[in-house]
Design brief:
It is a single chain. This protein is an alpha/beta fold and 138 residues long. The chain has a single domain (7-134), classed as 2,3-Dihydroxybiphenyl 1,2-Dioxygenase, domain 1. Helices cover 24% and strands 42% of the residues. It contains three helices and eight strands; from the N terminus they run βαβββαβαβββ. The protein has helices at 15-25, 67-78, 92-101, and strands spanning 7-12, 29-36, 39-45, 53-58, 82-88, 105-113, 116-122, 127-134. The chain has a four-stranded mixed beta sheet with strand order 1-4-3-2, covered by helices on one side. A hairpin with a 2-residue loop joins strand 2 and strand 3. The protein is globular, with a radius of gyration of 16 Å.
Length: 138
Amino acid sequence: MIQGISHVTIFVHDQDEALAFYTQKMGFELRTDVTIEGFRWVTVGPADQKDVDLALMPVGPSPMYDDETLAAFKVLMSKGAMGAGVFKTDDCQATYATLKDRGVEFMQPPAERPYGIEALLKDNSGNWFSLVQPHQHP
């Protein structure tokens, strides 16, 4: 049976630039950086969450995507239309301040929502993420 998700794909323009963004600005750790027969597999993740990796996949020639699909990915990324997920934090205001100081672009500062405090950020490839401090339930 399926036991969980181990990897999530994040499409990026350039793996080296994305690796620098996620490790230097977001504070993630490098998990894997190997090249096999010309294919480079790069993964990162938060140091405190070892069971899920973000796979930084370049938008380029692939047996899985034709040229039209790759072009569509590039257009969506350039528009900032690729919502990639939610990062959980225990202090949205402090995490926002730290990431902003490191040069992370935010589309929305922390704001109160029914589910918690949320800010919206973009990576250097145009993917956007929610940064959420969930409300504590009694």
